[in-house]
Amino acid sequence: MHINKEEIYNKIKDIKTKEEFQKEINSLKKEYDDLIDEETLALLIVDNLGRNQENVCKIKEITTGTECTVIGKVTRIKQSRSFNRKNGTSGRVVNLEISDETGTCGLVLWNRDVDLVNNKTIKKNTNLKIINGYVKDGYNGIELNLGRYGLIETIDEEIDVKQPITSSIKGEIVDVQPSRAFFKDDGEFGFVTKLKLETKDGLKEITIWDEKVKEIQKYDEGEKIEISNIDNREKNGIEELHLNGKGKIQKI
User: Fold this and answer.
1) Pick the CATH number of 166-251 from 1.20.58.220, 2.40.50.140, 2.115.10.20, 2.60.40.1910
2) Strands 189-199 and 56-57: what pairing?
3) DSSP per residue over 100-162, as a string?
4) With the C-alpha atoms ordered 106, 110, 113, 114, is the resulting torsion angle positive or negative?
5) Domain parsing of the chain, residue ranges
6) pLDDT tens for residues 83-101?
7) Rg of the chain over all Cα atoms, to the nearest angstrom
8) Whether the predicted model's global pTM rises above the 0.85 cut
9) CATH 3.40.190.10, applies to 53-163
10) What distance in Å separates the CA atoms of residue 194 and residue 177, rounded to the nearest whole number?
């Protein structure tokens, strides 16, 4: 999405002249060593003045393909990684989880933003404001990314966090789909499969990720198993069940 600086200014034209607005943009450009374009800096000014509220979303409200501002607490940080792209260039990535009182989603930081984690500016329990992030389907559920017009800030505001829901399910294996390999955005391989389990509450479908994919392949159709530490997620109002590295599978 192209952001027009004039349209951004219109949100605050009653409290700042164009000259004041541009002067503040120029000051921020120097502060950020000219690494951020003027449209993004303009959006930051407007957001700091509280005039960008129409795009602020709760985590449960965000949907794939949209852009929004989200406020959340960091609840999980994975190890940052370096990778090589197909065109021969290198990059860096780190995956986080953020939460608010309505739910949890992924947050992906790329390249120079990875330094915010490595230098401890962002750590577990840091409160963040992701401005104009774009939402996409990740390999572990819905996730926020920072594009050209996205910014991330640490904030002092206290944030209530909804505790993640985990559950255990017992049942008989009805079907395990063949595992599927895919390339992640950072060039690494990932693996995913779907498990159908007949339980006392009916047929349940569970999405199984990465190392747990190999583990579930050890079991045959008709065997009874218990799966614990399942992630219960909600996407577009529909409950989803996911099993990742935190989960456990055992025969019963």
Assistant:
1) 2.40.50.140
2) unpaired
3) ETTEEEEEEEEGGGGHHHHTTSS-TT-EEEEEEEEEEEEBTEEEEE--TT-EEEE-------P
4) positive
5) 1-51, 53-163, 166-251
6) 887 777 888 889 999 999 8
7) 21
8) no
9) no
10) 5
